[in-house]
Amino acid sequence: MESVKTNNWEPKILAFLCNWCSYAGADLAGTSRIQYPSNIRVIRVPCSGRVNPLFIVKALQAGVDGVLVSGCHPGDCHYLTGNYVGRRKSATLKQFLEYLGVEEGRVQFSWVSAAEGVKFSQVVEEVTNDIRKLGPAKRLVKRSDEFGVRS
Amino acid sequence: MSLKPATLSKKEFVSFLKQVMQTYDVIAPVELAEGVSAYRKIESPEEVSLTFHNTQKSAKEGFFPQSEVMFRYEKEGNRTQVTSTEEVDRPRLILASRPCDIQAFSLLDQVFSAKEYTDVYFLKKREMTTIVGFACNQPLSTCFCTSTGGGPFTREGSDIFLVDLGEVYWVEFLTEKGKALSKNEFLREASEGDAARAKKLEEEALKRMNVPVHLDGIETKLEQMLENPIWDGIHEKCLGCGACTFLCPTCHCFDIADEVSQKGGQRVRNWDTCLFSLYSMETSGHNPRPSGRERTRQRLMHKFNYFPKNFQKIACVGCGRCILYCPVNFDIRQAIREINEK
Amino acid sequence: MKNPYLPIPMVVKRTQIETADRMLRTLELGFLREEDEKAFRFVPGQFCELSLFGKGEAPFGIASSPTEKGSLKFTINRAGVVTTALHQITQGEEMGIRGPLGNSYPIELFQGKNVLVIGGGFAFTTLRSLIIYLLQPENRSKLKDITVIYGARNPGLLLYKEELADWQKRSDMKLVVTVDAGDKDWKGKVGLVPNVLEEVGPASENTYAVICGPPIMIKFTFPKLMTLKFPNERIYTSLEKRMKCGIGKCGRCNIGHLYVCKDGPVFSYEQLGKLPKDYY
Amino acid sequence: MASSQEMVQQKIREKAKELLAKKEVDLVIGFGEGSLPLRATPIFVRTPEEADRLVWNSFCDNNLATYIHKLSRFKLGIVAKGCDARSIMALGLEKRFQPDRIVLIGVPCQRMVDRRKVKLHVHRTGLPGNVDIITESASLPAHKAGHPADLPAKKAVKGEILRAREEGDQLIVEGNDFSVSLKKDDFLYASCKACTHRNPIKANVVVRDRVDETPLTDPYAEAKEFERMSPEERWNFFERESSRCIRCYACREACPMCYCAECFVDSSAPKWLEKGVAPSDLEFYHIVRAYHQTGRCTGCGACERACPMNIRLTYMTQKLNQEVKDLFDFEAGTDPATLPPMATYKVEDKQEFIK
To answer: In chain D, what residues touch A118 (CB-CB under 8 Å)?
Structure first.
């Protein structure tokens, strides 16, 4: 059953994109007609530092196959230091999730500036490929019929 | 006409249970981790573990699970199709419930069947369930069921009653429901010796229950104590977690919430506790029980004053779970003592 | 066995924003099944759990009177998740109700007596139900004087303006509407409910008082009723508490051994005096 | 001959009396005699006379700093072990109390006894009269979660523990039909064995000589042991542990660092998770609860000790502590001048993991 599904399966990836850079980078990729996989769903955030790690865990629970958080390069933060603070959250959360057994690569991070449409498409390509290799997310995912004790 | 007691060899317990499971959904103590057990619907007899003093979570879960779907709904356009999950299609059997938990069932009955409204989810399960009581050969020092109207060998409320005699279980059939199991081919006729052994174990167990907790008159005592300064002290170490109330066999508060899924969703009830501040918090942010003082008071007043006022019985069966598992050693026996001394 | 947790399916027939701040909205709900409508018998003061699938339930007093056939009215203050959703629901949508729940105003006691109704803010909902019920000719004939004092913070926050205008014109009742602060168009009374009560000074002899409002209003009005020599057993109020099941099982709305949902929400001050001071 | 512990107890009482008598504090939070063997219980002492109820032993395992939140309007004296003191310092950094309103009665800690390990040791041979019926015909689930595998395996005693006392490095445990002497070191909390800060930092007064802070195990032993498993095994372990959760939030309430006015689990808008016991909700809760302690956890183990279902929790927080030490060279509650790592940054922080 699973394998049948896997054949047509396309990963669903949630991307938290900083309004000031990566979101504009995605825009640029689009307006420049650069192709990238359509697997990402974007949530625009004011800063990569705004991404509460809770959002990432929630996204995984809600059933996305992967999460990408993308913000401004170091030194370029619109709020000066938001991406630095976010970087610490990202580093610790990533390690922690992998420690608990969430596959490496489910949660990824990138710096993409507003000028980097090409880089944006490459990042999405890479992340999508990584997650496609990992297969559908199973750990932590809440099944729609899930209730009570999982047997 | 009562049936003669039987015995069941422990070697044949698994076979016995297999046969039972052909007719019943069996809810039995399962060891979730070493030394931690709770009642679960079992898929195979091997899951059962009867080596507990008492389980952490009580057997009330057999009728009132921590989370329970009340109905599912599906939306189609403007219409919503609601399907209740109240029906119980197979007979159920709660295996090896301690007498304290069984006494608690009768208290929960009062709440859930109270005349104005019947709680179908609880009652339908209750009706369909056969209860196999399990004597406490070794009550713990934290047990005080004999002070709350029960006892380690109290049969009341059981359909069948088991006593662990070492190599075999002593099996008594107490009700019509219980007798339905008497035809199980793995039961043997009990001997005089078995009866004597069961009797002796009962006497020994009762002898262990030698530290009474004085609950006579506590309802009246508490009547005048709502604003007593005693509450300032009693609650102080309480962390405000829900461990005691969630493990308590008589606590029955719940919350109702909707869980949404893609097609529709379900309305669910989950255990809740008066010790959480959110429990009584109103949408405006106002909380009539703003601190641990009021919440601890509510817990004790409900058990020993409000519940008896409504149902003529205290809402405590002396199982000792709240004493054993409180993270800060809040001991309800001490609280009772303090109340009595006021 | 009847399942008291299953909602009765209803349809939103009409909606109306009541107040200038748009925080209060009245829903008029119609029954989808005839048998439900027949079975639904209530008395003013009772409430329902309004049920929105996916959002949950919240309790609301029934604002319409049993004499207004064909639908039920509820006025909803937007505060939390459920009430916000109830502000968004549109005409023609389906939803559920559970009820009628709780006790009611002691209407049978009012026979041959005067009735004083004091309301404040949006707690006026079940009082609307009560007043309309009492004004029905058959009921009205059994009563002596009816006096209603209703206050809101400002004119924009007064509920049921049509009804108020109607009652103002009637000769078989006395209506005093007051606001804490008027605006340029306000021609009516300005003053706090407790003070207006004192000014109106209704006789307490042979009179039942029903009072509903925010805790602060109750706190200051109650002593005035004492001054007017209303005995505790003839003052009634309706309480609010966090509720879930509405049928005395889930536990959270107790005051002492009573449950506001099942044994209330209407209590006399005599009853409240005997209960633990756990309700405010 | 008074044992060192009795002397500590005496000094705690003296200090508490003095603080209360001189009105330097309104109350002293310390430990009193527990109502059960192997236990002490938090007490709140308001008069010099009451100070004689204060005790000190190897069962004083609660982190008393958790009471600061509801008592911060008072001047507090707190009996503080190394871990309590760290929590207090960490809370000070988060401005949870006025710095001059807490007096620490510091107790260099002898490490606390894990009562569950003792009980399990006693339990493992089965209960007389309730002989294990199942294990002969069928075995229990292969991996028995819930407790570290480092328990002494020898068979000892049966039945319920009714009394326990300490004699030097021994723990005398007695029941109706047994009395056994156990080596305390075999029954310590894993978090105590790994502890490297047994001497309370910044205590106003210290009631015993400094203890040697060399830990009995690797400071990150639990995390390292866990990491030896494959990702799949790790997830299964985590899933199994979380599945026992009853949502009582004892772990949250026992933790001094858990004090959010509204915890994410209690928020209704947005509703982050349901309130039931669906496994993924339990997992979600445990991940976020632990992760929220990043750079704030002092490794006291209060969460795990509080759990009525014996869910293992410190392997998670210990990993976070290890990460924070490796990445930011920070240990919570050991340095009153440095901001917690998640509240700050360095330009040169590692970022190889970022594309």
So the answer is: none
DSSP strand E in chain B: where? 6-9, 25-33, 36-41, 67-76, 79-84, 92-97, 129-134, 160-164, 168-173, 187-189, 254-260, 264-271
Mutation pick from D232, D267, D272, D283 vs chain A, by most beta carbons of A within 10 Å, is: D283
Which DSSP symbol is given to B315?
Answer: S
Q: What's the mean pLDDT in C105-131?
A: 93
Residue D229 at interface with chain B, using a CB cutoff of 8 Å: no
- From CA C245, how far away is CA C234, in angstroms rounded? 29
Domain span at residue B308?
A: 218-341
| C95 Cβ contact partners less than 8 Å away, ≥ 6 residues apart | C7, C9, C10, C11, C12, C29, C50, C51, C52, C53, C89
Do B237 and D134 make contact, defined as CB atoms within 8 angstroms? no
- C79/D contact by beta carbon, under 8 A: no
pLDDT of residue B53: 82
Of B152, B173, B208, the one marking the end of a domain is B208
What domains lie within chain A, and their CATH numbers?
A: 2-134 (3.40.50)
Q: Report whether the peptide linkage leading into residue D270 is cis, meaning its omega lies within 30 degrees of zero.
A: yes
CB contact under 8 A, B40 and A149: yes
Cα D243 to Cα C123: distance, rounded to the nearest angstrom: 44
Contact C249/B at CB under 8 A: yes
Which residues of chain D have a CB within 8 Å of the CB of A58? 272-273, 284
- pLDDT tens readout for residues B176-204: 999 999 999 999 999 999 999 999 999 99
Tell me the shortest Cα–Cα distance from D59 to chain B, in angstroms: 11
In a domain, B73, yes or no: yes
* pLDDT over threshold 50, residue A149: no
Q: Hey, where are the domains in chain D?
A: 4-106, 115-187, 218-341
Q: Least CB-CB distance to C3: which of B84, B112, B252?
A: B84
**CATH (residue range C107-206):** 3.40.50.80
Q: For residue A147, which residues of chain B lie inside 8 Å, CB to CB?
A: 67, 69, 259, 266, 268
Cα(B49)–Cα(B156) distance, integer angstroms:
23
Which among D133, D136, D122 is positioned nearest to B162, based on CA atoms?
D133
Contact B80 C94 (CB under 8 A): yes
Residue B333 DSSP SS3:
helix
Instruction: Verify C-A touch: 3 or more CB pairs within 8 A.
Output: no
Per-residue pLDDT tens digits of chain D, which is 355 residues long:
457 889 999 999 999 999 999 999 999 999 999 999 999 999 999 999 999 999 999 999 999 999 999 999 999 999 999 999 999 999 999 999 988 899 999 999 999 999 999 988 887 654 443 333 223 222 333 333 333 333 333 333 357 899 999 999 999 998 887 888 899 999 999 999 999 999 999 999 999 999 999 999 999 999 999 999 999 999 999 999 999 999 999 999 999 999 999 999 999 889 999 999 999 999 999 999 999 999 999 999 999 999 999 999 999 999 999 999 999 999 999 999 999 999 999 999 999 999 9
Note the CATH architecture for domain C8-101. Answer: Beta Barrel (2.40)
Distances in Å between the Cα of C218 and the Cα atoms of C156, C276, D151 are 22, 17, 63
Q: What interface predicted TM-score (ipTM) does this complex get?
A: 0.93
Q: Could you tell me the pTM of the whole model?
A: 0.93
- Interchain proximity B283–C55, CB inside 8 Å: no
Count of domains observed in chain B: 2
CB atoms within 10 A of CB C33: 11
pLDDT in tens, C35-94: 999 999 999 999 999 999 999 999 999 999 999 999 999 999 999 899 999 999 999 999
Burial D109-142 (b: 16+ CB within 10 A, else e): bbbbbbbbbbbbbbbbeebebbbebbeeeeebee
Task: Round to whole Å and give the CA distance between B133 and B164.
Answer: 11
